[in-house]
Amino acid sequence: MRKKEEISAAERLYVASQWELTWRKFKKHKLAMLGATILAIFYLIAIFCGFFSTQDIYKQDRKYLYCPPQRVHFFAEKGNFYLQPFVYGLKRTVNPETWRRIYTEDKSRKHSIYLFVHGDKYKLWNLFETDIHLFGVKEGTLFLLGTDKLGRDLLSRIIYAARISLSIGLVGVGLSFILGCILGGISGFYGGAADMIIQRIIEFLMSIPPIPLWMALAAALPPHWSPIKIYFGIVIILSIIGWCGLARVVRGKFLELREEDFTMAARIAGASEQRIITRHLLPSFLSYLIVHLTLAVPGMILAETSLSFLGIGLRPPVVSWGVLLKDAQNYRTVVQNPWLLIPGLFVIIVVLALNFLGDGLRDAADPYK
Amino acid sequence: MLFYFIRRLIYMLVILFILSFISFIIIQLPPGDFVTSYVAQQIASGRGPSDRQAYEAQLRRQYGLDQPIYVQYIKWIRRMFHGDLGQSLAWRKPVMELISERFLTTISLTLFTLVFIYVVAVPIGIYSATHQYSLGDYTFTLIGFTGISIPQFLFALVLMALFYKYFGLGIGKLFSPQYETAAWSVGKFMDMLKYLPVPILVVGLAGTAGIIRVMRGCLLDELRKQYVVTARAKGVKERSLLFKYPVRVALNPIVSTIGWDIPWIISGQTIAAIVLNLPTLGPLLFQALLTQDMYLAGSIVLFLCSLTVIGTFVSDLILAWIDPRIRYEGKQGKS
User: Fold this and answer.
1) Quick one: which of A66, A184, B104, B283 could link to A251 by a disulfide (CB 3.0–4.6 Å)?
2) In angstroms, how far is the first alpha carbon of chain B from the final one?
3) Of the candidates A251, A312, A334, which has its C-beta nearest B289's C-beta?
4) pLDDT in tens, A38-63
């Protein structure tokens, strides 16, 4: 018997498991790897949102309404380089004609940016109270992405909003997954009348325009509900249509694989129905399910953002990217304060990353091709 | 063909029936009913009745709201066949009148967007597939990915802001001022065509991006097949080699899913129109939902859904007429 190290690379390919082959193929897809990395960073930031934000998201600074993003400097006026980045203090003047506030840098005040500074108190996962932030200034202000109409720091709000925006896609897809698997499974496994009814329901749901329906249902959520209830209400509304696509995939794969030779072989070899499903069928189409799930998340995120933007989805004080974008509803406001659109940039990046990831997974889903 | 037509027609009628039921539920969803809000409005405007309870009961009897829900539904349907969809509280006009005002703009925008998507996406898809990994292919792939990632409302908002900043004009309209309140005429229609490109671009971007990707993928698969290699070896010219079979085969899955695109165009159009404030049904629905003007909201949902279902029906018929396989196989083919 040869030892493991002696097996050549070519031979290792033959004995590699399905997941190993999938992983190899996935690694070759550069865009998908990029997407996965971006998503990992975003989800990490969302999980530790208190730590990564620079200040309390509800803290209003009346002195700095609609303040544009502050620039981070490495060079002082005389050209001296500082290893430690800093921001200048802000000076506020008012344009005598338009009454608009103008913020300029006050070169005489220099605030260095420190790592692990003590700032506003927050509770990590509602458990541990702490005041340590990844970075921040010890005095003065740090509005890296500007402030909104109440003088709240946009960067911190975007980071907190990531928690809602990123999770609603996952929770929504999770719910669709459960519904889709159960109904799609019944449809594919039992066939007959159950199949017929479920297929007609799916066709019906897929033939109506989702947005008007979502709007009507979301607007019907009672306004006195608590934010948590509204959140789950929105998730359920989005899942009403979301499960259809998945159920079709599950059913189609079920029907297709039941006729395959290897299923027949397993049955002749005396494998039980349960073993055939868990050992042979499930691994064969699990990868397709994962692909489908990944590609379903962006749709959920976009839908939530759109509904919240219109003001009939999540509502303040809950922050999601859509809720933040609601401040930019008027195009005149956007022209004057273009940084209010930055949450939209985050939506685009996440959706793009998810699409890249899904594309890579789709290519890798069938590693034997 | 006749058999297929009848079966599809019956199927469409069943769907329309279920839709009407769902719309009715939407109307009933918010707490309170028409009368509660109507009376509250009257009281607020100082014309309230002395005995509120009795007045409400009288109104309920008058509108049949004291009867069980299925009786109300049947009455609502019966009135609908007479062209009466109820009254809009906020506008103080019949719902039918409000919808018919915006009916043509909604349909035109949808149809033009559909045409735009296919006219733009198919040639680009062909180009991308035949010039795989070229600069043009990468550019279109990038545009395609961005197109499906930008929320429609954001795209509309950015376009509006840019137009306002650099040209100082709003793009949120469909008519010149002199036509805004005029009745429909050829002149008004021609006038609308001038304003349509921006909304079409906003609504159509995502769909175009999706179809470019499908077209490119299908054509690439097709071009790798043996018969293409054989034809090339025989010396068939590249152009006729491309258009004779591969493009036609690759078009098939796209053409046969037109029906699935219509719901998304109507959806996208609703959101884009709200942001651009176009005189279509989208903003009307949005206003109705915000003011809990439920007869209007439910009717618009019903109308938009019916439009989709009828559009799908027509596209299915055209497909069956073009492609004999569909009318013979019916629903036996792959889902």
Assistant:
1) A184
2) 20
3) A312
4) 888 888 888 887 777 777 777 777 77
